[in-house]
Specification:
By secondary structure, this protein is of the alpha/beta class. Helices cover about 15% and strands about 35% of the residues. Strands 1-7-6-5-4 form a 5-stranded mixed sheet, with helices on one face. The protein is globular, with a radius of gyration of 16 Å.
Length: about 140
Amino acid sequence: MDFNIRLSPIVAVSLLIVSCSSTVAERTAVGQIVVSHQGVGGISQSTPYDVDEIQSLFPELSVSETIENVELEWQVVESRRIDVFDGDTEIMSIYGYVDGKVLSISSESTQVTTPDGYTVGAALMDVFPTGIEEVCTV
């Protein structure tokens, strides 16, 4: 089972590439949430998909769950999402498997960074350190 993080395609690639090679800290000094190959903040592949569990990882933030019925062609399925807010600002949405584990996390917040401090919206060329050879394939 893979741990997926959904961001815009270009930023997701740059954030994940940088985070895979860096030392992981759950939060930066300014309290931002860090995304890495190990997870987001304190959330990892083994974190239970549970509102109370997520709230315990982010006690200073608001955490709530939304349950919706999604109509598919052949059935109606219950869809669950846990949202994390800082005041009125959405930090991330967390989606779960039926087995009670975290499936994916999506975020467009600048309060979520790589271990090196890059955020959503960072230019791709700013993210790659100097000296890395560009390899482009189509």
